[in-house]
Design goal:
four-stranded antiparallel sheet; alpha+beta; elongated; centromere; nucleus
């Protein structure tokens, strides 16, 4: 009866965790769709602006036809300023804000996880003939240079979006590790090992069964730098542990892949507590 009760509680905890995860994914999807709508509107306005510039450029001084593909420097500058202002309005909805400076624009990328505000990072860009990064507060382990090389000159919106994904995923992984240490320090054996990017976590934790404590070892690898959930999880117990604990280790491994780390710990910790 005890094991049946445990399985029932684990099933309920699993179902609740899955429902919570689905709700969060729906909210994130809605936010992305709203941002996409704004982005499409901006692209429409940019196309209209390009058409206007080409039409104005067809007549030069004294009615001389000029090259429509080569608008004046002033017209290009005005178009850039208009585009940047519209872009700032778009990204405000996605946690990215900014303001125009004398030499370009300064962006602030705010990170959050599960509705909790975490950190902000600043990026100061020079918008002359070639867009350049003047200064920033992005951590050195975020591949800023690679992202800039790929998107900065051709698609600044994409550049900011990808950079924001990297920063939010890193902040989410770090937040989960911190929550695990703060909330479940009594369950963790030794120190939770993590690298600077928090894309590799290794830790030992205890599992209680029939008034006995068994050590488990977990290794979480986050192969996608833009994701806050692991792509590879290995949970193991000692060879002499009961067969039921080996099954539990497999269940924990599956849960770590789908649910935030501290949420997973909270769900199976409550079920274990009801049996002890």
């Amino acid at each position: 009866g005890v094991f049946a009760h445990l399985e029932m509680l684990e099933a309920r905890a699993h179902e609740a965790a899955v429902k919570q995860e689905e709700m969060e994914q729906q909210e994130e999807k809605l936010a992305r769709l709203k941002a996409r709508v704004q982005e499409l509107r901006l692209q429409r306005d940019e196309l209209r602006a390009k058409v206007d510039l080409q039409q104005k450029g067809q007549l030069g001084k004294e009615g001389v036809v000029s090259d429509p593909a080569q608008p004046s420097a002033r017209a290009v500058l005005e178009w850039k300023i208009k585009s940047v202002k519209a872009m700032l309005q778009v990204f405000y909805l996605t946690g990215i804000s900014g303001k125009l400076t004398k030499r370009g624009v300064c962006f602030c990328i705010s990170t959050a996880y599960e509705g909790t505000y975490l950190d902000s990072y600043h990026l100061d860009l020079l918008t002359k003939a070639e867009v350049q990064i003047h200064r920033h507060s992005v951590p050195i382990f975020i591949p800023l240079e690679q992202i800039a090389k790929k998107y900065l000159q051709t698609d600044i919106r994409r550049f900011l979006s990808v950079l924001s994904d990297h920063l939010n995923a890193y902040a989410g992984r770090r937040y989960q590790a911190d929550q695990l240490q703060d909330r479940f320090s009594d369950r963790i054996e030794g120190t939770l090992q993590r690298n600077s990017l928090c894309n590799l976590l290794v830790f030992n934790y205890n599992v209680s069964r029939k008034s006995k404590t068994f050590p488990f070892n977990a290794r979480l690898l986050y192969g996608d730098p833009c994701c806050s959930l692991p792509t590879e999880v290995t949970v193991s117990c000692t060879p002499d542990a009961p067969a039921s604990l080996a099954e539990m280790a497999a269940a924990h491994s599956d849960l770590f892949r789908r649910v935030a780390l501290h949420k997973a710990f909270r769900s199976f910790s409550s079920t274990e507590g009801s049996v002890d």
